[in-house]
Amino acid sequence: MNLFDKHKDVLDKAIAAIHDRAFYAQYPEHPSPKIYGETADAEGRKRFQALLGKDFSELLQDDSAERIATEESPYLQEPLNIGYPSFSTETLIEKGTVAFHQWRKVNADERAAILIESLELMRERFFEIAYATMHTTGQGYMMAFQASGPHAADRALEAIAAGYEELKRFPENKFWDKPMGKFNIQLEKEWRAVPKGISLVIGCSTFPTWNTVPGLYASLITGNPVIVKPHPGAVLPIAIVIAGIQKVLADQGHDPNICQLAVDSLDKPIAKVLAENPEVKLIDFTGNSEFGSYLESLPGKNVFTEKTGVNSAIIDSVEDVDKVVQNLAFSVALYSGQMCTAPQNFYIPENGIKTSDGNVSFDEFAEKFVEAVNGIVSNPKMGPFVLGTIQNKNTCQRITDAEKLDGKIWLTSTEVENPMFKTARTASPVVVEIDSSKKEIFSKELFGPIALLIKTKDTDESIALAKEMALNHGAISCGAYTTDPQIKEKIADEMSLAATPVSFNLTGPIYVNQNAGFSDFHVTGGNPSGNASFTNPEYVVKRFTWVGLREPAKV
Amino acid sequence: MNLFDKHKDVLDKAIAAIHDRAFYAQYPEHPSPKIYGETADAEGRKRFQALLGKDFSELLQDDSAERIATEESPYLQEPLNIGYPSFSTETLIEKGTVAFHQWRKVNADERAAILIESLELMRERFFEIAYATMHTTGQGYMMAFQASGPHAADRALEAIAAGYEELKRFPENKFWDKPMGKFNIQLEKEWRAVPKGISLVIGCSTFPTWNTVPGLYASLITGNPVIVKPHPGAVLPIAIVIAGIQKVLADQGHDPNICQLAVDSLDKPIAKVLAENPEVKLIDFTGNSEFGSYLESLPGKNVFTEKTGVNSAIIDSVEDVDKVVQNLAFSVALYSGQMCTAPQNFYIPENGIKTSDGNVSFDEFAEKFVEAVNGIVSNPKMGPFVLGTIQNKNTCQRITDAEKLDGKIWLTSTEVENPMFKTARTASPVVVEIDSSKKEIFSKELFGPIALLIKTKDTDESIALAKEMALNHGAISCGAYTTDPQIKEKIADEMSLAATPVSFNLTGPIYVNQNAGFSDFHVTGGNPSGNASFTNPEYVVKRFTWVGLREPAKV
C-alpha cells in the first residue's frame, strides 16, 4: 500500500470533520493517556531523560553545525543542556530555497501522505513530547500531554485537511468550450496552485507544538518549505516533531530541509533577519503584540499572527453561583493563567448578580470566587498540577506588580509547593478589584495568574467594556453568564462585532480556555489579538496562488 | 414565489460553474447582442440619450444633495452634463454605518436573492449601460456591450456565488458531544459569519462596471454595506447598476443606502478621506500602482487591488506565423491597448523564430506584425470599432513619447477616422523595437496602444525578462508561442512562479486580453499587478469573520 492509500481515510474523515464541526479527534486524549499504551508513559519519560544534557542528534540537517543549548526547566530551575545545531540565516535561506523547488513539485496527495505519516511518528512520541513540554513551558503533566500531544496533532491534521481541500478545490485541467454561434472556441485549461516561497514559523514559550504546528503544516501541505524558529526557551517539543517530519521526508526520497529547525538564543535572535529576507513570503507568529504588529507591517509577506489580548468574563445572572465560580476559578488557575484564552477581566455589576437563590452582591461574588480559587490552590492533589509552574521570571514580577494595583486586593499570590519538584517556580492567582472607571489598569494584558474583578454600573457597561477592550486591544475568548435570553443575544451580537468568540454559562469540566480542533476556530483573526484563525479557509488559501494556463484544444 | 426560490437555480448553477470552470455564462454575449431582444439596442440607445444633460434621478439616496457633472465623451469630446448627487464623506459614512447594522442581519439567502434580482434589472439595461460605457470609457460598441453588460453581470454573479458558498461553508448550529469516559461533555455551538464593516469600492475610468461589480457584490453578499466611488470620468454605467441595486433593496424593505454612489471630481477627490475613515474596513481598487500601494499599506483594512502591470508575449516558435501576428495585432489594437490584460512587451530572439516553414528573422516577424496591425487599423469596417477611442488625453502624450524611445520605430501612431463620430479621440498603435539591454525602457507600464518588440539573445532571456518584469513590476497576462513542449513547460513553470497566467499559442478569435468569468481567475493576486483575484476564495473570505458561540446543551 502506498503512503497516500494508507492515510486517505484519515484525510477524508478530517475534511468531513472540518465541515461538520461536531466533536472529532483523530488523536483522542480521553478517557486517559493510557489509550496510547500501558507502558507508553514510562517509556516516554525514559526517552525524555535520555535526551537531557546531550546534543539533539535526530535532525537530518547539517550535523557539523555549532551547538547551542538554551532551555531551562521551570520545575527544576536548571538548564536542560540539550545542544541544537545553530545555523546562519544565510544557510537556512539557501537550503530553504533549494527545498522550495523540490517540494513545490510534489503533488498534494503525496504531501498529505507524508505529513500525516509524520503525525503518526509524533503519536508514538506523545509522552516524550509531554515531558519535554513540562520541562520547557512549565505546564502540568496532563496539559503538557494533551496540548502538546493529541490536541496539537489534531490541529496539525486540521491544517493539512484544510489545505488539501483548497488545493483540490478547482480542477487541474478542464476543456473549455464556448459556443460562438457558427463555431465554438475551444481551450484546454490548466490551473496550478503555486506555493508562495519560504515559510517562517516563529514559536512561543508556552505552547511550543500546539501553536506552531498549524502554521507549519498549513505551509507544508500547500507546498512551501518551512523554517521553524522556536522560542529559545521551548525547543525540544517541536524539535521532536520536526525530526519526525524530516525522517518521513528522507524516507520518501525528499530533501529533509523542506522543514528546518532554526534555534537561536535570546542574546542573538534571528527572527527579524529571517522575517525580512525577501525569500521569506509567509510568516506565522505566536507571541507579543509589538513584534507581531511589526511582522504584520512587513510589505510583500503574508503574515499570520496570534498576539496578546484582554479576555473578559461578563457576569450578569446565573443559575447556581457556586458552580460558576468553580468553573471560573479553574479557568484562572489552569497553567497559572498562561493560556492565551485565560480570562483576565471579570465584569461584575456593582449591584451584584441575579441567581436562582436571589441576588448575590459584588462582594459575595468576589468572596465565593476567592474561596473557589483557594479551594483549587490549597488542594495538594489538585493545586500544583493544575497551576503548573511560571514559565518566565518576568511573569513573577507582573504578579508582584498586580498586588500594588489601585484597587482592593482580594487575594494575594503565594508559592505553591509541588510534591514532585521542590524547586518548581510557582505562584497562585492574584485577585484584585478594580473600578470600571480605571480603564488604564485593565486595558492591557497582564499575562499570568492575575484576575481583575471589575465593578461596573450594570451589565450594559460590562458588555460595552468587554467589546471596547476586544476591539482596541484584542480578545481571544469571552466567558459570559446570563439567564436572560435578550442579554445573551446582546452579548453574542456585540462580541461578534468585536470578533470574539463567546462561551455562555459554562459550568463543570469544560472551560472558556479550551478550543477544540475541527470545531472551534482558535482566534478569529478579526481583532487585534491576531489576524489568523486555526483553521479557517483564509489560513490556508493565502499560502498559495492560483495560476491559470490555457491553449487551444487539439481538435 | 419568494425571491430566493426565484433565483435559487441561478445561484446553484453559478456555484457549480465556479467549481467546474468549464464554459458558463448566465448572461451570454453570443451569438450577438440580439439575444437580448430585437429592439433592445435601439431602446437602450434612446434611454441613454434621454439621460444626457439632466440630473441622474434614479438613486434612492438623499435627493436634495448638490449635483456635480464630471463626464466627457471621448467620442464627442463634449461633456455629458449628467448631474450626480454629491455627498460629504461624513454623510456617506454615517449612512453606511446605519445601513451596516441593518444589512449584516439579513441572512445569506435573502442577500443572494436581492443581489441576483438586481442583476436581472441590470440585464434589462445592458444596452443603455453599453452606450454609457462607450461615451465614458471610449470603448468600441461591441466591447462596451460585452464587458460592461453580460461579462460584468457574470463576474458579479460569480462573486455572489463564491461569497454565498463561503457563508454556507460551516453549519450555523451544531451539537458537540465529547466522550470523556464516564460522562460526555455536550455543547450547543453556533457560528456567525460577521461582516467587517463599510466597504469602499473605487472604480477606474476604463472598465467602470466590469472592474467594480466583483468587489461590490462580494462585499454585499457577505453583509457589508458598500460605498462605490467611481472614477469621475466614468460614472453613468455603474450609476445605472447601483440604481437597480437600490431599487431592489427598497422593494424588499431595506435601506437603499446599503449601496451608495459617491461621486467626486478630479479637483476634490474623496477616495483618500473615505479610505482612511476607521469605519471603512474593506477597500476594492482598480487603478494606478501608486495609489493602490498606498491603499494596501493602510493598517486595519482588508484591501483588494488591481493595479498596473507589464504584460509580455514570449515568441519562441510557431506553426503559422501569419496567424500568430494577426492574433497579437488584434490584442494590441483592441480598445487601443487600454485593457489591463493587453500585451506590451513582445520578446523575440535576435535569431528569429522557428516556424513550420523555416526560420523567420526578427525583422521579418516585426514586418509581419506591423502589417497585421495596419491591416486592422486601415480596414474602415474594423479599425475604428476595434480601436475605440483614447479615454484619457494623457495616453496621447504617452504615445507621442513612445515614438521618441531609444529604438527603431517600426510603426508610428496616426489618428483613425471614425465614420460615426468625427470628433473621436483616436490613435493607432505605435510599434518600437527595443534592445533587451535597455530594461529601463520596458520595465514600466506604457498604458495605451504601445507595443515594444524586445530583441533578446534567445528564448531563455525572453522568459527571464518576462518573469523579472512580472515579479518586480507586476503582470496580469502573458502570451506565449512555442511548439517545443519543454520550452512550454519552462514558460509555464517560470511564469507561474511570477504568478502570471499564460495563454499559449492563441490564434483565431480568442485573445490573451480576454478572461472569462467562472473559469479564468482575473489577476492572480500573487505579483505587484494586484493583490486580489476575481474570484478566488480569498477574495470573499477576507470580507467577514467566523465567530463561534457555545453553551452547555440543554439535557
TrEMBL record, chains A, B:
Residues 91-499 form the Aldehyde dehydrogenase domain. It comes from the Bacteria. It holds the Pfam family Aldedh. Keywords: NAD, Oxidoreductase. This is Phenylacetic acid degradation protein PaaN. It comes from Splendidivirga corallicola. The gene is paaN.
